[in-house]
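so my prof wants the structure for this chain in the tokens format not the other one, which i didnt know existed until like an hour ago. anyway here's the sequence
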Amino acid sequence: MRSLAFLLLFASGAACAQLQVEHPWARATPPGAKVAGGYLLIRNPGASPDRLVSVSSPAAARVETHITVKDGDISRMREVKGYEIPANGSLELKPGGAHLMFVDIKAPFKQGDKVPATLRFQRAGEVKVEFEVEGMGAMDHGAMKMR
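here's what i got, hopefully its the right format
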């Protein structure tokens, strides 16, 4: 019985440790802006899918999960109820695609700042991250590192 309890504890801990969050970053905002975009890569090397169900940050009143939908030549953002992270797969949140929207930010995001946030996953639970703030026109996390 003790072996079974240990195995179950190990398996549940391993599931939580499976997700890997890489390169969380956000764009700097101009003075007076009320929203900011957040981007990152989530890897799930595990055998079970997971779902990002919510995000919170002390830097904003709320953080929404968005996708970008093309309607002809027009791109529109639409809020969605989280994101699926496939088993043995990944999900990249990036400009022009799925992304996080920090809404009613409490202060401008300035290049070089770090913005704390908590990601809540259906299976893995809470993961705390810090978004590195890059330039206003940054298109990916690597752009800042190459300058």
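also thought this was worth mentioning. The CA atoms of residues 37 and 101 lie 5 Å apart.
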